[in-house]
Amino acid sequence: MVQVNWSLEAQEDVFNIFQYWSQFTIEYARNLMEEMFSLTDLLELTPSMGAIETSFKNPKHEYRFLVIQKRYKVVYMYENNVCDILIVWDCRRNPQLLKTRIRKNN
Questions:
Q1: I need a labelling partner for 81 at 20 to 30 A (CA). Which of 9, 24, 50, 75 fits?
Q2: What are the tens digits of pLDDT across the range 58-88?
């Protein structure tokens, strides 16, 4: 089984997403979190299930992502039986900012 780690930045992203949606409806916020954690829990068994992130390449790392409700991207790396979740990204934002955040994590 693979170890899944959440970076501090990814944890903050999840918290901020939950806070945002809970202003409007706590039920949706909870459902979103449940879907996100259910999907990321599957990484323990199938860490390569996410699509390869091709918008930025790094010779040292292969980045993958999972899509949550067509709105959020959970970006992670899988190496040496460890899956590191780096960020949770709102896909409606500028993709250049995503590249900046990923570079900051490595």
A1: 9
A2: 767 889 999 999 999 999 999 999 999 999 9
Domain encompassing residue 14? 3-105
Q: What is the CATH number of the domain that holds 77?
A: 3.30.2310.20
Report the relative pairing of strands 51-52 and 3-6 from DSSP bridges: unpaired
Domains of the chain: total: 1
> At residue 33, what is the residue type?
M
The SS3 of residue 52 is strand
| Strand bridging mode 63-68 / 51-52 | antiparallel
pTM of the model: 0.88
